[in-house]
């Protein structure tokens, strides 16, 4: 009789231990799945090459970017010949250049809904390239630049 009671206690203890182990294993599996998802999301965010993203700049970077960007804007706008129009237009392009100033990618980010105006903006960037090399302080291999072309028509009153 004592042996059966002892065996029942052992079986109960064994079931409790198994339940705890299974619960712990389930928790570990859930945590592992969450960690795998977080790791995948991190890897995707690190390696995703999205030309639509603006580069982040700190105030220290602004000190060497400002002259570069001012010159870049002046040069591109010099090569821009927008079509004559009765309405104001805005075209936003984004382009990628490498450290040496070579154009790697170019696309329309926001169309003016005027094919000729869009083409003129793309052409201005293409004929301006290659650009001056990026500032020496820049440590990356390439950078995405968002550039806006505004064609403003003043109304006659």
Task: Walk me through this protein's architecture.
By secondary structure, this protein is an alpha+beta fold. 51% of the residues lie in helices and 18% in strands. It has three helices and three strands; from the N terminus they run ααββαβ. The chain has a three-stranded antiparallel β-sheet, covered by helices on one side. Strand 1 and strand 2 form a beta hairpin. Helix 2 crosses helix 3. The protein is elongated, with a radius of gyration of 30 Å. The chain starts with a helix and ends in a 6-residue tail after the last strand. About 11% of the residues have low confidence.
Percent of residues in helices: 40-55%
Tally of contiguous helical segments: 3
Largest sheet: 3 strands, antiparallel
User: Proportion of β residues?
Assistant: 15-25%
**Rg from C-alpha positions?**
30 Å
Summarize model confidence as the mean pLDDT: 78
- Weakly predicted, low-confidence segments: 42-53, 57-61
- The largest sheet has its strands arranged as 2-1-3
> Tell me, what's the shape?
elongated
Question: How many beta strands in the DSSP annotation?
Answer: 3
Structural class: alpha+beta
- The ordered string of helix (H) and strand (E) elements is HHEEHE
Q: Span between N and C termini? A: 110 Å
